[in-house]
């Protein structure tokens, strides 16, 4: 059944991982997609594939969400009929580096804060007013992390950005309580995507090691939960979902089989 037929969904960070799986699951559910990412070729290909596979409409936009001027321009320049965005999936985000705070890279911190926190704010600031203007039963889905609940060693700044996502989600939900707009914070634990490759700046050996001895979540697992939250009846607001692999209790407590 096409649960989201005709709904317009904006997905940030759609070229890889959870964003990409989300785009696929949403297209399968009948949604019309606006996909954004920094890499235009990847989302252009994805967009085309989804159009062919699911016969749905899909727009690809090259966008770095941490660039406020670019975010404003991208949304202002959307064709009028695409401005009626029912659902915003704030997925774009990254972890960079895994080291003690006092030995970390300030450049990595800037990137994480700019993308994970400011990028999410910029998109939300632009898109929620459109949901209100068009009187939509809007929905903002933020992709947070278990790292936003429990900090772990060597991850202070990443954890802090996801903690910000947690509280921004809570605050936004309060600010929108007198509207039909719902706010959901999805907090996945260890999910095998290119997350660790990015974190270790392309060191594949290190990245692989993160998931050795466990069965991690897949991006499809998370996409399924997001589609579920979006498809719930309008009076049902799924505020928060925390999901970990069965072998992960919290950020740092992981049972690895030898
Ligand atoms: C991803 C969860 O535990 O790999 O945000 O940091 S974890």
UniProtKB/TrEMBL annotation:
<dbReference type="InterPro" id="IPR036291">
    <property type="entry name" value="NAD(P)-bd_dom_sf"/>
</dbReference>
<comment type="similarity">
    <text>Belongs to the short-chain dehydrogenases/reductases (SDR) family.</text>
</comment>
<dbReference type="Pfam" id="PF00106">
    <property type="entry name" value="adh_short"/>
</dbReference>
<keyword id="KW-0560">Oxidoreductase</keyword>
<dbReference type="GO" id="GO:0016616">
    <property type="term" value="F:oxidoreductase activity, acting on the CH-OH group of donors, NAD or NADP as acceptor"/>
</dbReference>
<protein>
    <submittedName>
        <fullName>NADP-dependent 3-hydroxy acid dehydrogenase YdfG</fullName>
        <ecNumber>1.1.1.381</ecNumber>
    </submittedName>
</protein>
<dbReference type="InterPro" id="IPR020904">
    <property type="entry name" value="Sc_DH/Rdtase_CS"/>
</dbReference>
<dbReference type="InterPro" id="IPR002347">
    <property type="entry name" value="SDR_fam"/>
</dbReference>
């Amino acid at each position: 059944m096409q649960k989201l037929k005709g709904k317009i969904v904006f997905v940030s960070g759609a070229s890889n991982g959870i964003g990409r799986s989300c785009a696929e699951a949403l297209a399968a559910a009948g949604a019309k997609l606006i996909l954004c990412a920094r890499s235009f070729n990847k989302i252009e290909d994805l967009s085309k594939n989804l159009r062919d596979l699911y016969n749905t409409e899909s727009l690809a936009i090259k966008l770095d969400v941490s660039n406020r001027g670019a975010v404003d321009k991208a949304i202002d320049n959307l064709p009028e009929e695409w401005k009626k965005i029912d659902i915003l999936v704030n997925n774009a985000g990254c972890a960079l580096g895994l080291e003690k705070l006092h030995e970390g890279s300030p450049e990595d911190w800037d990137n994480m804060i700019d993308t994970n926190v400011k990028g999410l704010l910029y998109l939300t600031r632009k898109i929620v007013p459109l949901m209100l203007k068009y009187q939509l039963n809007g929905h903002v889905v933020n992709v947070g992390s278990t790292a936003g609940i429990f900090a772990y060693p060597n991850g202070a700044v990443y954890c802090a950005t996801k903690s910000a996502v947690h509280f921004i989600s809570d605050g936004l939900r309060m600010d929108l309580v007198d509207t039909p707009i719902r706010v959901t914070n999805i907090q996945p634990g260890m999910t095998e995507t290119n997350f660790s490759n990015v974190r270790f700046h392309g060191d594949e050996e290190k990245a692989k090691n993160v998931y050795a001895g466990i069965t991690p979540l897949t991006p499809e697992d998370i996409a399924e939960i997001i589609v579920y939250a979006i498809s719930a009846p309008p009076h049902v607001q799924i505020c928060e979902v925390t999901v970990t692999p069965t072998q992960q209790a919290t950020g740092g407590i992981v049972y690895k089989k030898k």
